[in-house]
Amino acid sequence: MDSQNASYNAGVTKGQTQEKCSNMMDRASNTAQSAQDSMHETGQQMKAKAEGAADAVKNAAGQQMMASAQGAAEAVKNATGMNKN
């Protein structure tokens, strides 16, 4: 009987160890998936902010170019006498 008890206990211990290992693997997998999801979300937020910054730079540059063009047009008008006040 002792041999059967030892064999039974070894089987129980093996089953418990396998279950614990499986649980740890599941937790590790869930943690990795969570980290991946978080990184993806962070990447999307960074992309949106970069696009917003690029648009702001384009808008500012466009405004500067428009002001320069208007200034140049005024200078031409003044130089040619077309700008009569």
UniProtKB/TrEMBL annotation:
Residues 26-55 are annotated as: Disordered. Residues 28-45 have a biased composition (Polar residues). PANTHER family: LATE EMBRYOGENESIS ABUNDANT PROTEIN (LEA) FAMILY PROTEIN, STRESS-INDUCED PROTEIN KIN2-LIKE. This is Stress-induced protein KIN2-like. It comes from Phaseolus coccineus. The lineage of its organism: Eukaryota, Viridiplantae, Streptophyta, Embryophyta, Tracheophyta.
